[in-house]
Amino acid sequence: MTPKAYDPATDGAKMGFADAMSYGDYLHLDGILSQQHPQSDAHDEMLFIIQHQTSELWMKLALHELSAAREALRARDLSPMFKMLARVSRIFEQLNSAWDVLRTMTPADYTTFREALGPSSGFQSHQYRLIEYVLGNRNPNMVKPHAHVPEAKAVLEAELAQPSFYDEVIRFLFEELDGDAAKMPAPQLTQPHQAEAEVQARWKIVYEDVDTHWRLYELGEKLVDLEDYFRRWRFNHVTTVERVIGFKRGTGGTSGVQYLRRMLDVELFPELWHLRGDL
Fold first, then answer.
1. Which residues contact 273 (CB under 8 A, 6 or more apart)?
2. CA gap 82, 223 in Å, rounded
3. What are phi and psi of 137, to 5 degrees?
């Protein structure tokens, strides 16, 4: 006889899991919780490790959502795409909040284990790099730090070989306003997206008549919202680093705060920001 399936509505709280999947089984918690390996005896190193590991998990989810959003856009399935973009914005809000925890670590705390990091650095996060590539901030030279991990290198190079999410947005913009993408500028596959006058002119059409072009207007604002949260995340990164190490070089050899400050000037969707002065 087949055993009766567990029904939480009638059977109450399950207390035995010898023959059933538990919470820990489903999430593979034994594996996750055994992956924190401090290289020193410093108390605060555990905070540093968990901060970065959880950030990588949130970035994995952001990439999952962005990949699906790009496919939805290509299929012109806009409602799910809007939800996915809103979720990515909230992911970056979550990442922003995480800096508040790391900022409880003082310079004195960090110096107790900084040498144990060797040349490792968040600068080397291939998921962060992939998020930038997906959104259109593309610098092929930044594949080099991942050459020692063939899988990561292949993923980054595959992304550089296809239009970014914003390139797909621009295609949609031209098709909706022009009827086709014949006058669309070529996708900027292997360089950071630079503002294009033709793209900005079409966004201006949208923003000057939002009732007629509501879907494009909503998409534009979703992108501005996403970049707003992304910029805040970068800004909080800069202030956290400055608070903890001042103007020292980063462990990975970058100029530290100076490098991060330059990143604050990067615009993912420049036409959407520049047009605001024209309205």
1. 224, 227, 267
2. 10
3. -90, 90
What is the residue whose two structure tokens read 């294009």?
196
Query: pLDDT tens for residues 17-67?
Result: 788 888 899 999 999 999 999 999 999 999 999 999 999 999 999 999 999
**What Rg, from alpha-carbon coordinates, does the chain have?**
22
Structure confidence at residue 249 (pLDDT): 56
- Residues 6 or more apart whose Cβ sits within 8 Å of residue 36: 46, 49, 50, 53
Please enumerate in sequence order all residues whose Cβ is within 8 A of that of 67, keeping only pairs 6 or more positions apart, or say none: 134
Read off the amino acid at residue 19: D
CATH number (3.40.50.2000, 3.40.50.150, 1.20.58.480, 1.10.3080.10) of 42-278 reads 1.20.58.480
Mean pLDDT, residues 219-225 taken together: 97
The model carries a pTM of 0.90
Please return the burial class of 5, using the count of CB atoms within 10 Å of its CB with bins 0-12, 13-18 and 19+: exposed
**Cβ contacts of 162 within 8 Å, gap of 6 or more:** 189
Find where tokens 């400050």 sit. 261
